Structure formats: structure tokens, C-alpha cells
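Bug report (template v2)

What were you trying to do?
Predict the complex of my protein with S-adenosylmethionine.

What happened?
Run completed; filing so the output is reviewed.

Input:
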Amino acid sequence: MGRRKKIHKEAKWPRVVSLKEREEVLSFWEERFGIPKEIFQDYLLLSTAKNYWLFIAPPDLRPLQNLKVQTVGLLFTRRVSRWLKPTSTALQRFGHLATKNVLELSPSQLDRLRREKRLPFEAEVEEGYVIIKCEGKVWGCGLYAQGKLISFLP
Amino acid sequence: MLKVTEAPAYFARYREIIPDFEKFLAHLREPLPLYFRLNELKAPDPEVVLAGLARQGVKAEAVPGFPHFYRAEPRDFPLGNTEEYYLGYIYPMTLSSALPVIALEPKPGEYILDMCAAPGSKTTQIAQVAEDKAVIVANDRRLDRLTALVANLKRLGVACALTTLYRGEVFPFGVPFDKVLVDAPCSGEGRYREGYEGELLYQKEGHTNLPAIQKGLLVRAFDLVKVGGIVVYSTCTFNPEENEMVVDYLLRKRQAEIVSCTYPLPHHPGVTEWEGRPLHPDLQKTARFYPHETQAVGFFVAKIKRLF
Ligand SMILES: C[S@@+](CC[C@H](N)C(=O)[O-])C[C@H]1O[C@@H](n2cnc3c(N)ncnc32)[C@H](O)[C@@H]1O
């Protein structure tokens, strides 16, 4: 029994990823969607468990690390088993910069995808995570594989 | 809950300070126009958003003097149910609520504390004005409200903010803030209005001593900002005890200076005397905004510089 030891406040702070890990995540965005790494040059990449967060690079991070934080930045990418998966949140923000693996759906297709969560689908894109767009608006992330489109929309 | 028929008695104590008092009372029976901010962080091409809204029957017109703000009609349109809202392209808010951030003038690279931030209309406005490049600490003491703030930051795609859950009065020292916004909890008198059912949407925070809380928040904000930095104090109430007298308290306790500011809405100088008590003459540099003159919620804004 007794009182549980308080978690050290810095333990809650997401960790700044190594250059190598940053390179891996940003290369994924560049290779998969054609979004250049430089787009993210003003941001730090932070990580908690399997999540990567984008947070503006402050002049000095240390004073902020003394705060007990609830959230830091924008959820950017997740590690799902061996893969990196972009979040819909991040795609909605940066997806308009993509040059490939974008699926343009009609409003009725989008409706159906949101309701049924998967659709039979044929498209000229590489298998893997895709950006779902409709009438010029980015809705988020889908998975295209084996003639199917699976929704990861929120 | 105060009925609109009781409003004249309630507001009578402000007869001397609210201009065109009768007009003000009459205005309380009218609904306010609907405004939204277009979030260019997520919608680099505003036309897509405006066209989408137009297809649903919403007419949106840019508001002069308020970059990114639009007046929408019909004014009872449920903007919160639109795709544009869901995707974080728009943030509906009353026009006067934009004023504190106009006074704050956030810039990329600055450390900014939003001390009473939830649900985040001003935090997200700061992020947008600073192009998602200021370092924003968005704080609120209430977890339920902070959750709404976190949801709004996500919805609007803001990456330059972190959130904390402190009582503002004891927010820890150590971050060299360039600017602090204190959008204080207040009696909310500026929001008084006859609702659709003929009732005033009046919320008063029980019997808490609001001026005491507000003084505590403002003094802490001042102590947190670096020398030469800016604190903006705002409320949506008319009550001088929650406005000028709070700032007056700071001016007596600390080396602070009120900075004049230009606003794109009609306003009046802060009062320098209340109920027979003289206040610091510089308080005339603070600004009071009234609903019948602005077609928006009543507001008070003070821009303060830390001298030492
Ligand atoms: C006027 S509202 C803020 C509105 C917000 N700035 C916006 O624009 O969306 C005041 C907020 O102050 C918070 N609050 C009340 N007392 C506080 C305290 N002592 N410290 C920090 N926040 C407090 C309330 O939970 C409330 O969310």
C-alpha cells in the first residue's frame, strides 16, 4: 500500500527523436506522397510510444520541458507493426501538398466509404496508404490494397 | 437566469458608462450576426471553403479590418454541422472575441502563454496569425474544457501549441514568455442577450469572487512575461470591478504601462473612476466595446507592457 510515487514530470514529455528516426519518418512522407522534407523544417518530431508528433521548433526547448504537459503539437504519424501510417489529422493539414497516391473520390463514394469502412476499388496508385480527397478537400487516410479501399478516416 | 424584462434594472448601474443606454437595452432583444474565422492553416485556398458553404446556402462576406473573418448569413445557420467545420476550415466566433489577439499581435518565433485558453478560439487564432510558428502554451485549469481545446487544436491542424492544466495563478516560472494573454473567467455580462425562448443566456460563476481571481491571474501573467513583454487582459463583461479595477490593481503592484492600441471596431476609453473611486488615469488607454455599437458580444481589452 502507501502512496504511489508520482511520475517524474519530464517522463510525460514526448521525446525528441534522433536524426535517423526523423529521416525515416520524413522520407516516408516524401517517398509515399511526394511531400518534400523541407516542408517540415521548422518543426521538431517528437515521439510517445508508437506516435510521432509535429511541434514547432522553439528557440530553446528546455524551459518548456519543465512544464507538466497534457499534449504537445499535432499527431503526425503512427507506427503500425512494421509500417509508418500517416494520421488523418496530419493529412488534412499537409495532404494538399501531395503529388502522388492521392485518391479523388466522388461525394457518393466518400459517403459510402465513411459508412461502410471499405469499398471495392480500382485505382492507378501504389498499394499502401493513400490520401482521400473529395471536391478539393482532404479527408484523411485510407489503405488501398488488393482492389479494396479501407477507411482510416476519423 | 435573468429575464430580459429584468435587464434594465440589472444594468442600471452602468447607465453612466454605457453610451446610448436605451439603445443598448433595446439591442439586447435582437439576435447577433453570425461570424466565422477561416482557418488558412488548413484551407490555403479560401475559395474552396466559401464555395462549399455557398452550395449549402451560406452567404459569407469578408469583414473589413478583420483578416480571415467572415460574416455569414442566414445568421441561424448551423455552421457547426458543416463539412467545413468538421474538417477544421472554419471556427465560428463572435467578432469582438477577435480583439484580444489583435492587441496581442502574435509573431512567429515568440513564446506565448494563453493562460485561460479553453475552448481555444483565441489560441487557434494566435496560431493562425503567427502562421503556426509561435510557441504557444495553451493553459486552462479545467480538464473538461481543456479536452475541448485539444479537440479544437486538432481540428484546426495546429502544430505550434502545447497544452497544460494549471491554475493560472500558480503557472510555473521558467519559460521566457514574450507575450501572455489573460482571457479571464468573468461574469459574462457582455454576452447578455434575449435567447430564442425569450430568456437571457446569462451565466454567472456562482458566488465566486471573480475580481480576486482575475487579479491573481493578471499579476501572475505579468510576472511570467519577460521585461519589455506584453500582457493582454480581456473579459466579456462591462463590470469595472472585473476590468479597469483589476488592471488598476496591477498598476499599483507592479511596474506596468498601458499601451494604446487601434481596433477595427468602435470602442470607448476605459473608465478612470468607478463609484466615486478614482482609478489610474492611464486606464483610459484600455478599450470598452459595446454590443449595440459592434453587433457582437461586449468586451474589455487592456494591452499592458512590463517595464521592469
Ligand atoms: C473566457 S473563458 C476563455 C475562452 C478562451 N480564451 C477562448 O477564446 O476560447 C475563461 C476560461 O478560464 C478558465 N479558468 C477559470 N479559472 C482559471 C484559473 N484560475 N486558471 C486558469 N484558467 C482558469 C475557465 O475554465 C475558462 O475556460
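What did the reviewer find?
The pocket of S-adenosylmethionine is lined by residues B 115-122, 140-142, 145, 167-169, 183, 185, 213, 217 (CB under 6 Å). The longest helix of chain B spans residues 210-224.
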